[in-house]
Automatic annotation (TrEMBL):
Presence of the UniProt keyword S-adenosyl-L-methionine in the record: no
Keywords: ATP-binding, Ligase, Nucleotide-binding
A Pfam family reported for this protein in Swiss-Prot or TrEMBL: TTL
GO cellular component entries: ciliary basal body
GO MF entries: ATP binding; tubulin binding; tubulin-glutamic acid ligase activity
Protein name per Swiss-Prot or TrEMBL: Tubulin--tyrosine ligase-like protein 9
Alphabetized InterPro entries for the sequence: TTL/TTLL_fam
Coiled coil spans: none
Annotated GO biological process: microtubule cytoskeleton organization
Similarity comment text for this entry: Belongs to the tubulin--tyrosine ligase family.
Organism, scientific name: Blepharisma stoltei
Length: 427
């Protein structure tokens, strides 16, 4: 604990002045900027900090060997990997679904259908081969469980392409050195905008797993590819068509540095509503909310809850051409570097709101339902609410917003039509 903070605690002199809060981080991107803008003091002391934005490794290597003061906060839960490692996430989702079935909650179980069919490699290779043979025309995607930015990912449609990978990686079922992968059904009918594939990065903050308390950030973004989508087997190896990661797209000659290939979520919703109608888009985003809640509930029992910890998750969601959302991955350390000025402000603003909720300054009441750009989407009460009440509230709020967005879309369309008419008249 920093010396100044200790004085405040002793005097019980709340709220704590920002200059008395010491932060530590090794990141020099939006995280550092947000911490500095907060007016907090930087420290490089080993343990004399009040809030630390750490690398994931710190949690593995240090957290268990130190004693933290009650007020100290760190940005990961100890076993964050339960949700954020690709294979563990799938294992937890499958188990959650199975438990719901066992409890006879069949409808609820049927709704846990938002992750593509997935097998662990090498462990479930034989099961995968059986499935592969049952559906020989399916496209599959191979992803290393612990990498990010599209590294090591490839698509295939023939078993022989995996054999090639097996020999390239000197892969053997009993070789502990073999890099674990998952193999997943490739969603080959993604929703396209202007002929291009996209996925969405949406932020969810969890401040506690018991009781589960989660907030959803209203502003996120869609990440687009810079090449038109094609499901042609000849294009199966073209990452620019299939992978939406900025790290991949940045190397494309079509890369648009001005937009960074990103679209604000609000804009995307407006566009989708004008194209598919409010009801379908509302339903799609309602399902996305359900994905957040259900995925968190699925790992809740496995998570080691700790009052020092909070976590900002970056969810990757893909929408298919039927407007069905799919959960691809949850990131425990979503990228906080920016590739445009807008992106920079979005991320610094997001982090600032995270810090408000984490409440180092002790100014929150604890019952707020909206904080900056965050909305509370789940707070488990000691006495469970009637079955659907919270969900109905989300839906209600969502529909209200959807109506506003629809109005805005209509106005934008009218403005565009008026501009066109003026241009034609001028000619
Ligand atoms: N099952 C799938 N169907 C269709 N596209 C997929 C699928 N899985 C992944 N992708 C595409 O590949 C990209 C990378 O996948 P994923 O996010 O799982 O890997 P990653 O390397 O961990 O990326 P990140 O840096 O975002 O964490 C996704 O953004 C998406 O465009």
């Amino acid at each position: 604990m920093s010396e100044l903070f200790r004085k405040y605690i002793k005097k019980e002199n709340y709220p704590v002045h920002p200059s008395n809060i010491a932060f530590k981080t090794n990141f020099k991107n939006c995280i550092y900027e947000a911490l500095k803008r907060r007016g907090w003091r930087e420290t490089d002391s080993e343990m004399e900090w009040d809030i630390m934005w750490s690398e994931k490794e710190w949690i593995h290597e240090v957290f268990d060997h130190v004693h933290l003061q009650p007020h100290q906060r760190v940005n990961h839960f100890r076993n964050y990997a339960e949700l954020c490692r690709k294979d563990l996430m799938i294992k937890n989702m499958k188990r959650y679904k199975k438990n719901l079935e066992k409890e006879g909650k069949l409808e609820e179980a049927a709704e846990v259908d938002f992750f593509p069919l997935t097998y662990n490699m090498p462990g479930e290779y034989s099961l995968f081969v059986e499935e592969f043979k049952r559906n020989p025309n399916t496209v599959w995607i191979m992803k290393p469980i612990g990498k990010s930015q599209g590294k090591g990912i490839f698509l295939f449609q023939k078993l022989q392409q995996v054999s090639q990978w097996k020999s390239d990686f000197r892969w053997k079922p009993d070789n502990p050195q073999a890099e674990p992968y998952i193999v997943q059904r490739y969603i080959n009918n993604p929703l396209l905008v202007g002929g291009k594939k996209f996925d969405m990065r949406i932020y969810v903050l969890v401040t506690c797993y018991s009781p589960l308390t989660a907030y959803l950030y209203r502003t996120g973004f869609a990440r687009f590819t810079h090449h038109r989508y094609s499901s042609n087997p000849e294009d199966i190896c073209n990452s620019y068509i299939h992978l939406t990661n900025v790290a991949v797209q940045k190397t494309s000659e079509n890369y648009d540095a001005q937009t960074g290939g990103k679209w604000d979520l609000r804009l995307l919703k407006l566009y989708l509503m004008s194209k598919y109608g409010q009801d379908r888009v509302s339903e799609c985003f309602y399902k996305i909310h359900q994905i957040f809640i259900k995925s968190l509930l699925a790992v809740q029992k496995s998570m080691i809850n700790d009052k020092h910890c909070f976590e900002l998750y970056g969810y990757d969601i893909l929408i298919d051409s039927n407007l069905k959302p799919w959960l691809l991955e949850v990131n425990a350390a979503p990228s906080m570097t920016s590739n445009t000025p807008h992106d920079f402000e979005l991320k610094v603003g997001l982090l600032d709101d995270v810090f408000t909720i984490v409440d180092m300054e002790r100014v929150m009441q604890g019952n707020e339902e909206q904080v900056g750009g965050f909305d509370l989407i789940y707070r488990q009460t000691p006495f469970p609410m009637p079955a659907n009440s919270t969900y109905q509230t989300y839906l209600g709020t969502y529909n209200q917003r959807a109506t506003t967005l629809k109005k805005l879309a209509k106005q934008a369309a009218q403005r565009m039509a008026a501009n066109e008419a003026t241009k034609v008249a001028a000619k």
